[in-house]
Amino acid sequence: MTQPKKLFIKTYGCQMNVYDSERMAESLGGQGYVTTDKADDADMILLNTCHIREKAAEKVYSELGRLKPLKDARPDLKIGVAGCVAQAEGEEIMRRQPAVDLVVGPQSYHRLPEMEAKVRSGQSALDTDFPAEDKFDHLKGRPKMKRAPAAFLTVQEGCDKFCAFCVVPYTRGAEVSRPAEKVLEEARDLVERGVREVTLLGQNVNAYHGGMTLAELIRALAKVDGLERIRYTTSHPNDMGDDLIAAHGEVPELMPYLHLPVQSGSDHILKRMNRSHTAESYLKLLERIREARPDILLSGDFIVGFPEETDADFEATMELVRQVRYGYAYSFKYSTRPGTPAAERPLVDPAVADERLQRLQGLITSHQREIQQSMVGREVSVLVEKKGRLPGQMLGKSEYLHAVHIENSTAAIGDIQRVRVTEAKTNSLAAVLV
Ligand code: SAH
Ligand code: SF4
Ligand code: F3S
């Protein structure tokens, strides 16, 4: 028997990249690869990359620079770049870093086995097509390995929204939904392998239209035996349909957590971002969602220092955050992305943008702490995902996606346990059995 070859994958960026890395590992599994968590003894290293901000893309080149000595020492080591930097920069990557053997875009992962054979024979391989065939269909026939209780499941990919700052419509292509039967089939397969919770993924997941709406898909998934929890991310305010809002009040398996990015609280900036909603329409929408599910925890994304953002525009963002009180929110300093419409516009003074970002993050963190604190004394359900560091301690997530440590737990991994929160720590909650 030949020794299995070892594959090391490093994943950057969003949850869809996490999902894709798993699919790539399975795809190369058929070529005799097993995954390793040490780059040092790998036969192939894949970086699954993100292009969303300049820093994210530059990280890839510094990592490649660090990997180069490994390759110099072991020329049969193969290095590949996958993901959104691969899609955006293609061949340029091999020019900038000749240690790279393989470049594969997010729509071509099913072609990895042929590409691997090509690089093994000493050639380089590049594929950044948007092929017509369904990559998911080619990723089947994988071994039924046991899985962690919470899994990602891509149902939709790409985006047609073209927000003025964003590379995703270019790196992931046009919006495509997977047929609902395929999604249901994959969900059943995941459940057989121990999964209890799925997070449905899409760059614009609430625009899903795979023969059903997202709400209909969620209702169908809720009927799958053994699937206890459903989440979805990321959504656009304009695609938040009435039936999806209703599902939040009616489907117990749909968890009370929603990531609904708004990006800014200023209507002028929203317009310049090509977001096609206003601060008011967003707040009205949240009101309706909270009517359907009063305890829902909201999360969002913000861009600070978008071109032309004035002090008054920024104050409107602060005001919106005060009104919403997010349980979690992610805020980023605007980063110019070549090829996007906003790239042509004059930048806000970086020092001003930094100061705004700090103030916004301070406000968001204070809300986050207050909400964590308000959980103390309440009962929550925790899907147990792993053992803690202390004896008897188990770790998992509440329905609101809070990380919870259960002391003296009797649960096994994959159980859902009812607990009472005893303490709010910085990034987690402590709880005891009820
Ligand atoms: N599909 C997601 C977007 C993924 S990018 C969605 O539509 O919400 C995640 C977040 O990165 C975005 O919500 C936005 O806040 C931020 N982002 C995107 N492009 C950016 C840029 N050029 N500069 C700074 N932040 C950006
Ligand atoms: Fe990017 Fe806007 Fe599409 Fe989200 S909705 S992926 S921010 S273009
Ligand atoms: Fe990054 Fe691509 Fe995801 S740019 S955020 S990895 S879709």
UniProtKB/TrEMBL annotation:
Record: residues binding [4Fe-4S] cluster 1: 14, 50, 84
Organism: Sulfitobacter delicatus
Ranges where the Radical SAM core domain occurs: 145-374
Needed co-factor(s): [4Fe-4S] cluster
Keyword line: 4Fe-4S, Cytoplasm, Iron, Iron-sulfur, Metal-binding, S-adenosyl-L-methionine, Transferase, tRNA processing
Keyword Hydrolase: no
Pfam families xref list: Radical_SAM (PF04055), TRAM (PF01938), UPF0004 (PF00919)
Domain MTTase N-terminal positions: 5-121
Cofactor note: Binds 2 [4Fe-4S] clusters. One cluster is coordinated with 3 cysteines and an exchangeable S-adenosyl-L-methionine.
Reported function: Catalyzes the methylthiolation of N6-(dimethylallyl)adenosine (i(6)A), leading to the formation of 2-methylthio-N6-(dimethylallyl)adenosine (ms(2)i(6)A) at position 37 in tRNAs that read codons beginning with uridine.
Name of the protein described by the UniProt record: tRNA-2-methylthio-N(6)-dimethylallyladenosine synthase
EC number(s) from the headed UniProt entry: 2.8.4.3
Family affiliation: Belongs to the methylthiotransferase family. MiaB subfamily.
Localization per record: Cytoplasm
Binding site for [4Fe-4S] cluster 2: 159, 163, 166
Annotated GO MF terms: 4 iron, 4 sulfur cluster binding; metal ion binding; tRNA-2-methylthio-N(6)-dimethylallyladenosine(37) synthase activity
Domain TRAM: 373-434
Major subcellular location class: cytoplasm
Catalytic activity: N(6)-dimethylallyladenosine(37) in tRNA + (sulfur carrier)-SH + AH2 + 2 S-adenosyl-L-methionine = 2-methylsulfanyl-N(6)-dimethylallyladenosine(37) in tRNA + (sulfur carrier)-H + 5'-deoxyadenosine + L-methionine + A + S-adenosyl-L-homocysteine + 2 H(+); N(6)-dimethylallyladenosine(37) in tRNA + (sulfur carrier)-SH + AH2 + S-adenosyl-L-methionine = 2-thio-N(6)-dimethylallyladenosine(37) in tRNA + (sulfur carrier)-H + 5'-deoxyadenosine + L-methionine + A + H(+); 2-thio-N(6)-dimethylallyladenosine(37) in tRNA + S-adenosyl-L-methionine = 2-methylsulfanyl-N(6)-dimethylallyladenosine(37) in tRNA + S-adenosyl-L-homocysteine + H(+)
Subunit structure: Monomer.
Gene3D superfamilies per the UniProt record, alphabetical: Methylthiotransferase, N-terminal domain, tm_1862 like domain
